[in-house]
Amino acid sequence: MTDTSTATAASVPLAPRALPLLGHALPLLRDPLAFIMSLSGYREMVRVRLGPSTAMMICDPDLTRQVFLNDRVFDKGGPIYDRIREVIGDGLSTCPYPLHRRQRRLCQPSFHPTRLAGYGAVFARAAEVKAASWRDGDVLDITQEMMTLTTRATMETMFSGSLPAETMRRALADTSTIVTAFFRRMMTPALLRRVPTPRKRQYDQARDRLSATIAEIIAERRADPTDHADLLSTLVGAVDEESQDGQKQLSDTELADEALTFFLGGMETTAITLAWAMHLLATNPDVQHRLRAETHQVLAGGKADPAQLPSLDLAARVVTETLRLYPPAWMMTRAVRQDTELGGVRLKGGSTIVLSPYLLHRRPDLYPEPDRFDPDRWVGGQPDRAAYIPFGAGARKCIGDQFALTEAILALTAIVARWELTPVGDQPFRPKVETSLSSRGLRLRISERRTSGTGDAEAHAATPRSTSAQPSTPAQPSTPPGAGGCPVKH
C-alpha cells in the first residue's frame, strides 16, 4: 500500500494458501497457531478467508487497541461470537453494543472489590481441598483436576454451594463437549453445521442440559428472596437506575445468559490457565523452586489467604507470563457496524475483523525471546496496554479479571506449597486449539514437598532469574499487570 489515505480493503495483501470455497479453513483447522504466526510478518493487517467470507486480520498492537476502544463501530460479532451465542445468548461477553452498557452496569456490582475477599476465601478453600486429595507419586490429568477445582469454586461463588456430585459430573462433561465443539463449528459452513451428525446431536444435548440446569437454579432463586451473599443474588438484586426504557433489572432470560456466561468462563478458562501455569512450572524447575520458597515465606506453614495476595509477587508474575504465552482467547472477531477507516484502510460496514492476542504476545519486536517462559520480564514494569491483551481492552474488557486473578494466584500458591510438579515423559506438550488454547490431556506427576531450611530458599525466591526456553510454550495482585483466565470471553 503506497497511498494509505485512499487504500481499500482489496489492496491489503491476502494471506497465502487460500483455497476456493474453503479459504484458509484447512490450515486453520490443521494447525491454527502455525497459520496465525505465519502472519506475523504483516506488520499492520492482512486479509484471511474464513470459508467464502473475507476478514481483516489485524497484526499491529496500536490498531488492535483502536478496535477494542471503539466498540460502537467494531462490535462483538463474527464467527466466534455467533457460535458462542448459541450457548449463552446475549450475555455480557457476546451482546451487541446497544445492549452492553446496561448489562455492564447491572453486572458490575457482582465484581465489586469488596466482594473479592469472600470469593477469594472460597477459591483458597477449594484449592486446599483439591491439593489434599492427591497422593505422593500420583500422575494426574491436570486439566481435569483444575476443571473440578474451578467448577466447585465457581458453583460456590455463584450459587452458595456446590451441585450434587452427579450434576457436577454432568456439568463438567457438558461444558467440555460444548467448548470442544466451538472452534470446529466456527470453521464449518452454515449448511454443514445443520447436518444432524452424532457429534452435532451430542453438542445439542450438552447445550440443552447445561441450560436446563442453570434455568432450574435461577427459578429456585427467584422463588427465594433471601440474599445468599453470592454472585447470583447480586445479579438478581441489581438495579440500573440509568435505564431509559424502564427495564431496571435483568429479566429471567438475561439472568440465565449472564449465569451461563460466568459459569462457563469461570470454570473453563481459569482451569486452563492454571493447568498451563503448572505445566510451565514443571518444565522450569528453577522458577518452581523460587515460587515454593515464596509460598514458604508468605504462608509460613499456613494456608493461602486473600489477605496475602499483595505478597505473592512471583505467583502473580507466573500467571501473567502464562497468559502471555497461552492467552485463553487466542483469537477474537469483531463485526464492523458502519463504513469506517482503520490504519488508512477503508472498511465497509458488515465486514469482519480478526484479532489475535497469541500473535501479538509472541512478536519478537514486542517481547524479546518471545517463546521463552520468563516471569521476570514483568519485574518492575507494567505490560504495554496495546501489546498485552489477554482480556481485551476498553469498555468490553473482561469484567471478571480481578475475580479470576484472585482464583488463579491462590490456587497456584496452595498447590505449589504442598506439591512438587514434574513432567510425564520428555515429549513437548502442544495446545489443543479450540476457542481457548486447551490443555486437555496434559499429565503431570506430583511429589510431596520435602521440608528444608528456609534461609537459602528465601534468598533464592528474592532473586529474579532467567528461565529455560520452552519452544511452544504470561504483578502486583492489587493492580496486576495481568490476571487469571477471564470468566468472560472478549
From TrEMBL:
Signal peptide: none
SUPFAM superfamilies per record: Cytochrome P450
Gene3D superfamilies: Cytochrome P450 (1.10.630.10)
Record InterPro entries: Cyt_P450, Cyt_P450_CS, Cyt_P450_E_grp-I, Cyt_P450_sf, Cytochrome_P450_Monoox
Cofactor: heme
Compositional bias annotation for Low complexity: 466-476
Keywords, comma-separated and alphabetical: Heme, Iron, Metal-binding, Monooxygenase, Oxidoreductase
Domain of life: Bacteria
Family, similarity comment: Belongs to the cytochrome P450 family.
Protein name as catalogued: Cytochrome P450
Source organism of the structure: Streptomyces rapamycinicus (strain ATCC 29253 / DSM 41530 / NRRL 5491 / AYB-994) (Streptomyces hygroscopicus (strain ATCC 29253))
Lineage: Bacteria, Bacillati, Actinomycetota, Actinomycetes, Kitasatosporales
